[in-house]
Design goal:
The protein has one domain. The strands form four sheets. It has a four-stranded antiparallel sheet with strand order 1-2-3-4. The chain has four helices and 14 strands. By secondary structure, the protein is mainly beta.
């Protein structure tokens, strides 16, 4: 057996043994149907994800934005993803498509943050991050959004955005492809949180780290930190979902 696989099995066995000593019981509060393919959206893949806040669960998939109450599991707001961004203030031309949504709830500010990227199939001039911030803790109310190029001055395309946060900042990352569709690494953008909470949001203080080489991993995932620490946070990276390290 491969040594790395053996070590992984030992770690998993240890975790399973430890878990038997602490009885953690999970109960299902509500079962409900979210967005349905062919009804709410025709987009494939769905890139399904969601987040939980004080009173709501928000589902954000390719093609559809929906808000459900936690208590009744009632869908109180729904619209296309395109309409969501238009309502939040993004001027979308008919040539632009929207894809790869992410959403998180930030307990420290009581706001929701969402990100997608735009796509122009007719152009090789790169694309934009779309970043939206709710105006209250209720995601069914108004949002404000900004659009900006993650790598200014390049024609590179940012794909599969990820989203993280801590007490002081919001962090966006993505895979990077050059105009010839070659994967050339990842990118990372850090934005101070306080200016984002203004109306309109202010992103002037953002820091773009440009193209980070493929040695840093194919997918960067900034951590989502829920405490109030001001200590530096982490960005996780993985290549080929880590499978290459287990199979060789």
């Amino acid at each position: 057996m491969n040594t790395r696989v053996s070590l992984l099995l030992i770690v998993l066995t240890t975790l399973l043994q430890e878990s038997t000593h602490s009885e953690v019981l999970a109960t299902i509060g509500k079962n409900f149907t979210g967005s349905t393919y062919g009804v709410d959206s025709d987009a494939l893949p769905a890139d399904a994800n969601g987040a939980v806040g004080p009173d709501h669960f928000v589902e954000f998939v390719n093609g559809r934005y929906s808000v459900f109450t936690k208590k009744e599991a009632a869908r109180v707001k729904t619209m296309t993803d395109r309409q969501f961004w238009i309502n939040a203030g993004i001027d979308l031309s008919p040539a632009l498509d929207i894809t790869d949504p992410r959403i998180v709830f930030d307990r420290s500010s009581g706001r929701w943050f969402a990100v997608s990227v735009d796509v122009d199939e007719s152009s090789q001039s790169g694309n934009q991050f779309l970043l939206a911030i709710s105006t209250t803790s209720n995601p069914a109310e108004n949002w404000n959004a900004v659009a900006f190029r993650p790598m200014p001055g390049t024609g590179n395309f940012a794909d599969f955005p990820t989203l993280g946060m801590d007490s002081s900042g919001i962090y966006l990352a993505a895979d990077v492809f050059d105009p010839d569709d070659n994967n050339i690494g990842s990118t990372l953008v850090a934005i101070p949180k306080a200016p984002l909470l203004q109306n309109p949001p202010n992103i002037a203080g953002r820091t773009s780290f440009g193209v980070l080489g493929v040695a840093r991993g194919d997918v960067l995932q900034p951590t989502v930190t829920v405490n109030e620490t001001a200590a530096p946070e982490l960005v996780l990276a993985v290549s080929n979902v880590g499978l290459d390290h287990l199979l060789h």
